[in-house]
Structures are given as structure tokens and as C-alpha cells.
Amino acid sequence: QVQLVESGGGLVQAGGSLRLSCAASVRTFSNYVMGWFRQAPGKEREFVASRNWSGDSTRYADSVKGRFTISRDNAKNTVYLQMNSLQPEDAAVYYCAARWAGSSKYNYWGQGTQVTVSS
To answer: How confident is the model at residue 44 (pLDDT cuts 50, 70, 90)?
Structure first.
């Protein structure tokens, strides 16, 4: 069983930055690919970024490339999402997710953290 707890959301002005954190309660963190997703009101949940244990497989949605950075501290079982140059369209509930490295499906989800961007 994997439990994920996000933190770090909040209100920021356009052009500002936030860092989200996700602490994972899991026996072997290195076995999981960690991802971030987001869902804005009235929209479907969308992929934001993912990173495997070593970092040699890191992916970003085109909409956040160059602005967001996903990282992980494997010693702390924590994954981060550094978000820079935030825009109003980035406002959403952000979810941390985990999938077994050999699977394509994210089976574990956090409760979400709200990011609000004022223009």
C-alpha cells in the first residue's frame, strides 16, 4: 500500500513560483515512478510531469516544459514539483501519483493540493 500526501499549494501572483511536495509512505520508493497531474474546474485531469528513481526517465507536458521541474529525494521518499513563471492557466488542483516501475498505470494518488494564480 502506498500513501501520498501533498503540500505546498497556495495563492501566487502570475509570474511567481511555488514548490509542491509529496511525501510517500512506501516500502521501496525506488520501485515507483512518481508523477504530478492537475485538474482545473470543468476540465479533465492532465499529466504534468513524471520522474523515475534515477531521473533518467523524466517527462513533462508541453505546457510546462521550461517552467516546471520535477525532482525527488529518494532518501526522504519525497517528490517535488518546482513551478516557476506561473500563469493563470496553471491554476488547478495538483495531484501526486505513483505507479510501479513496470506498470503504465498510476495506481496511487494523493488527496490533491490547490494552486491558485492571480492575474
So the answer is: very high
Contact 58, 70 (CB under 8 A): yes
End-to-end CA distance of the chain: 40
Who contacts 104 (Cβ-Cβ below 8 Å, separation ≥6)? none
Question: Could you tell me if 23 and 8 are in contact, meaning their C-beta atoms sit under 8 angstroms apart?
Answer: no
Which pLDDT value is given to residue 63?
Answer: 98
Pick from 117, 105, 118, 85: nearest CA to 9: 117
CA–CA gap between residue 92 and residue 75 (Å, rounded): 29
Give 53's DSSP letter.
S
Distance CA 13, CA 22 (A): 23
Assess contact for 86 and 16: CB atoms under 8 A: yes
Grid coordinates of 42 = 470543468
Tens of pLDDT, residue by residue over 67-91, are 999 999 999 999 999 999 999 999 9
